[in-house]
């Protein structure tokens, strides 16, 4: 009886051979790559194959045999791009240009050589063309793991792109040329760019190019960030949604020419198969094109295709070309969202069955354009949530608003642009482009409003893989839970496991209290994350920007999300120097922050960037408070029913009645609690140190964060002797022009036998304090 329930539970797969084959393939490939999960996956795979009817079982076994043979012959599971260090690759080499992609400044060139595939950037013409065989000189960029957890992982990104390294193309000479289809596709993208630039401003033209050709290089960064925070960044480039819209429009236009329907379908299939690589060839595009092709081929033979089975065919084909795509987050999001929408899109509980309302045209319009959009957005969000939490540790609760208000406008703008392209009469094209421009401007305005809310993006997770797998299983089981006891048991068991897991996570900090300090590697600047025993998080300084890259977006926010931090108790800026507050404005705008703590003297600093930080905090309603000597942040907790412990973060500098040189007035704090103590000194100079030494404040600390990045103007012998730390930490950038930490400071530390950890050498430094003392770890 129970096995019959299992068979009924698998019925959505049993009736769809291609989807069943893909399901089995994922279990097989995941078990092969991660044997630990195979302990659970292999029994599920065997039970599923046994429960499937004959044809789905044979189809699944055939696909599994294909992947097994492929693994045996090519060892793809271990086949990664060359791990060769780009620094060992000759700066002068021979290569073949596979593709050339436009970027905001110049181009990015994909070159294949004997050493591997490389991505090289070039800002100024001349540029090579796809199909060129060239002799080139390159400057290679280092490929290193992230020094801040959650930051950009260049080795992982290169593996995902099938690349061995990246760098800068210094010069090249063309040796020969041969035709490749990519040259035609590149010409198509340039044609679109030149065509729409006649009628639209750069930003709106760039948005339309992104929608039609998948090239986002001309879309302003501010607009892209807004769409990302609003949870609708997928509409900025070619995705499955756009392919469906475009394919239906092409098919409609072909039929409108009185072309026989069979010929129109064949032409539409061929057009879309050519369009996919021309539009950048993303996995979502190929998935949608394959699905469209399967449906149309079925109609050619007068057989109505099942949408979920068509999805299965598309996913199996993508995996057949490259089984590694199942680990690609774009593939995961595209497949899960599509499956969820197809399976649950028409099961909208928000739609009422009242006969009276069904006759009301206004209500029907509300159902079709609002309630359906809300439900489909919720379904897509729910089904992609496990992958979003795993890959990005964040969700966008406000994405429903974006999908209802913005996506239709962008879609209409894309259609207007397509009509302008298909009807190239100047007057007609101009009219359609004006309509597209208006819709895009309205979309940008709405996105700016939506993304300004602090809850536009919230931290979710991180959660273990097994927890996310259970979450996914529960979501898949919901559809059949009403009529299937097996599905109900799975849901109840999953909820029980969730309850146990989250109860354990809530109890653990109370049973084993600890606090931590993370000195992040943000280059030649300071950024320190302090987490108290109760879980309150304080950010001491906000780093320094590098070129056009904002440190908050690149390093600080990814780290906070990686650690599961969803709110900051406050941002503390030790003093208004750019290398200590560069990321503050973005943090205030894009991450929930309760307080901004500063020194009183900094209110009078005449720096535009600093004034912008204060103005941003005031605009967002963040409380701004002055810190001065004697103020204490205190928490009490129990390590046992009888033993009470105290955690103190005490401000020991500056003096509230005197404003001196900026660095000398840096806010300095001594943190003490279970396991040890730590002293944070900002850019404190010898003058500030002397002021502290003249007080009776206890300074002895286990760990010292050196003042002013290890400058010789800080860390006097008297101050080091008073603190007497076991370890000193210096926060500075690699090969910085100040040569910090200075040799004199290093010699002082050596003479006092104080070990030094330097972020430029060790990456981020993490100090964890608990009942066993303190432990120090580094990211490198």
Automatic annotation (TrEMBL):
NCBIfam families: ComEC_N-term, ComEC_Rec2. This is Competence protein ComEC. Keywords: Cell membrane, Membrane, Transmembrane, Transmembrane helix. GO terms for biological process: establishment of competence for transformation. It comes from the Bacteria. CDD domains: ComA-like_MBL-fold. The chain crosses the membrane at residues 12-30, 36-52, 59-79, 232-254, 266-290, 366-392, 398-423, 461-478, 490-508. The lineage of its organism: Bacteria, Pseudomonadati, Fibrobacterota, Fibrobacteria, Fibrobacterales. It is found in: Cell membrane. It is a multi-pass membrane protein. Its main location: membrane. The keyword Transmembrane helix applies. InterPro entries: ComA-like_MBL (IPR035681), ComEC_N (IPR004477), Competence_ComEC/Rec2 (IPR004797), Competence_DNA_uptake (IPR052159), DUF4131 (IPR025405), Metallo-B-lactamas (IPR001279), RibonucZ/Hydroxyglut_hydro (IPR036866). One of its GO terms (cellular component) is plasma membrane. Residues 524-734 form the Metallo-beta-lactamase domain.
